[in-house]
Specification:
The complex is a heterodimer. By secondary structure, chain A is an alpha+beta fold. In chain A, 21% of the residues lie in helices and 23% in strands. In chain A, the strands form 2 sheets. In chain A, strands 1-4 form a two-stranded antiparallel ribbon. A two-stranded antiparallel ribbon of chain A has the order 2-3. Chain A is globular and about 40 Å long. By secondary structure, chain B is α/β, with parallel strands linked by helices. Chain B has helices at 25-32, 40-50, 62-72, 92-99, 101-115, 129-141, 163-170, 201-219, 252-256, 260-263, 281-286, 291-296, 315-329, 335-353, 364-372, 380-394, 396-405, and strands at 78-83, 119-124, 148-153, 196-200, 229-235, 242-247, 266-271, 277-279, 305-310. Chain B starts with 24 loop residues before the first helix and ends in a 21-residue tail after the last helix. Classes of the chains: A alpha+beta, B alpha/beta. The structure holds iron/sulfur cluster (2 copies). Residues 159, 178, 330-334, 337-338, 376-378, 380-381 of chain B line the site of one iron/sulfur cluster (SF4).
Chain lengths: 71, 426
């Protein structure tokens, strides 16, 4: 069985743009001029999954989530 | 018994447009006959084989969508006949609902049967309500439909017809405001949490004819990828906007009778409306009228809109007004959309009226577009970005003149921008 693959998704309605996530996970997140996160890349590499998870649980608005990539 | 014949040639939905202002139920049945009694599986096959795609602007294959809803299976699905066209350049849905309500309602009835729905919501703007009420009453009297039909009135705003916004309106929360779908889908969980099929009213009208005359008939007009015809709202060709039925894959030049000479007085063509994109006049008149072709030129035919911009108006000022309108029509929920569209609108206004204030020159605009694309809960910012990107490409010479010589004297505005009910400062 293959390992599950994940990507990051931000709910732009919930996100308040305070940018905690990009501080915690600059490997795949940067901030736009207004402080909202821009996601770089699609699949989160296995080695970075723990860091990505940490960023999602620390998002104060629960706006950042890891979702399973189908197939 | 009346003999019902399939329309030959490219006039289908408008077949009855010369006969009456409103085609009532008797006239409708006299022209088209009753719907055939097909089983759900057969209906799904017929729609698949027809190659019909969604005419609301996404051009998604209808058969695939229906199957996804039909097999969702958690609870009975709901069908939404979506006629809440918010695009200022489009009038075809309202026209169709007014003129041929029974084609739309037939299509909704077929869709409900195919996906196993027991509830149909007709989602329309206020002007369509009384006509649909009448049509539904007539159908009830004749016992035509087996499932329950209701009408929900859409708010008058650009985003009202957007899928998640329509569902929000019907569910009685935040009318006309999109929601973030994430990994859920409306198909799985929409109206009242049920699997939901949201389908544009023109699409349903095509379904009404496909159910009667079959997929081969439907495919006898159009291309392999884009079968059938499309209703197109055309502005700038005649004194007033007109709805025309265009065989998909044919050219606008042909459909509108515009030759090279006539094309010279058109500065550019906006396909798809304010959420679509500009194409050079010669391209617009000679490319096959399909979503694929429009996309290959960076545009979209959207819900079937063509706006011909006449010479003698400043295209940059026209576009700036539209971008400001689109900014105001955003739902104000997503940071990148709220901030980005405002900055895009301001930058377009600079270019139009105070070109010296535009920091970074023309190149600043596509960069800004990149900052909003794909970053909203809905596709509103993507549409605005496409509008801006294509505007500064198609009107590049004019934009550069602004930068080198200053703005134009702007005269009468051409592109219609509906007034906002709230505020009036813009
Ligand atoms: S931490 Fe959460 S709320 Fe804050 S910017 Fe990141 S996604 Fe948005
Ligand atoms: S992207 Fe813009 S228009 Fe769409 S929901 Fe977010 S704020 Fe509203």
């Amino acid at each position: 069985m293959r390992r599950a693959r994940f990507r990051l998704v931000v709910d732009p309605i919930a996100c308040d743009g305070a940018g905690v996530c990009a501080e915690l996970f600059p490997e795949m997140l940067s901030l736009d001029p207004w402080g909202y996160p821009i996601i770089h890349g699609d699949e989160v590499p296995d080695g970075l999954l723990e860091l990505a998870r940490k960023a999602t649980v620390n998002c104060p608005r629960l706006a950042l989530t890891l979702i399973k990539i189908d197939k | 018994m009346t003999v019902v014949t399939a329309p030959v040639g490219p006039t289908r939905l408008l077949d009855t447009s010369g006969t009456a202002d409103v085609v009532g139920l008797d006239a409708h049945l006299a022209r088209w006959g009753a719907l055939p009694d097909l089983r759900p599986a057969a209906l799904l096959d017929v729609v698949d084989q027809s190659g019909l795609r969604g005419h609301g602007g996404a051009w998604f294959p209808v058969g695939i969508k229906w199957r996804a809803v039909a097999r969702s299976g958690r609870s009975k699905p709901v069908v939404v006949a979506n006629g809440a066209e918010g695009e200022p350049g489009s009038g075809k849905d309202r026209f169709l609902l007014h003129h041929s309500p029974h084609l739309v309602l037939d299509g909704a009835s077929v869709a409900a049967r195919a996906v196993g729905a027991n509830r149909v919501v007709v989602h329309v703007t206020p002007g369509s309500v009384s006509g649909i009420e009448q049509a539904l009453a007539d159908r009830t009297r004749q016992g035509l439909d087996t499932c329950a039909f209701e009408i929900v009135v859409a708010p008058d705003r650009f985003l009202a017809g957007q899928e998640s916004a329509a569902v929000a309106t019907i569910n009685g929360k935040n009318p006309g405001i999109p929601t973030f779908i994430g990994i859920r889908t409306i198909r799985d969980q929409g109206v009242a949490g049920r699997p939901t099929l949201v389908q544009n009213v023109e699409t349903l009208a095509h379904v009404a004819l496909i159910a009667r005359f079959g997929p081969q008939w439907f495919r006898s007009v159009g291309t392999d990828e884009s079968a059938g015809t499309a209703l197109v709202t055309v502005t700038g060709r005649w004194d007033a906007p007109r709805i025309v039925e265009v065989p998909l894959g044919s050219t606008l030049g042909n459909a509108l009778g515009i030759d090279a000479e006539a094309a010279r007085s058109i500065q550019g063509v906006l396909l798809g409306g304010y959420g679509g994109g500009w194409v050079p006049t010669s391209t617009a008149m000679s490319m096959p009228f399909t979503e694929e072709a429009a996309r290959s030129h960076g545009s979209s035919i959207g819900a079937g809109v063509a706006i011909l911009l006449p010479s003698g108006v400043c295209p940059i000022a026209e576009c700036a007004r539209v971008v400001r309108y689109m900014e105001g029509e955003g739902a104000g929920q997503c940071g990148p959309c709220v901030n980005g569209l405002d900055l895009l609108a301001t930058s377009m206004e600079h270019l139009a009226y105070r070109p010296r204030s535009l920091h970074g020159g023309l190149a600043a605009l596509p960069t800004l577009c990149g900052l909003v694309e794909g970053r909203g809960a809905c596709r509103h910012p993507d549409g605005v970005a496409r509008f801006v990107r294509t505007a500064i490409e198609v009107f590049a010479d004019h934009a550069n003149l602004h930068l080198s010589r200053g703005p134009c004297q702007t005269g009468q505005p051409f592109l219609a921008v509906p007034g906002r009910s709230s505020g009036g400062s813009r």
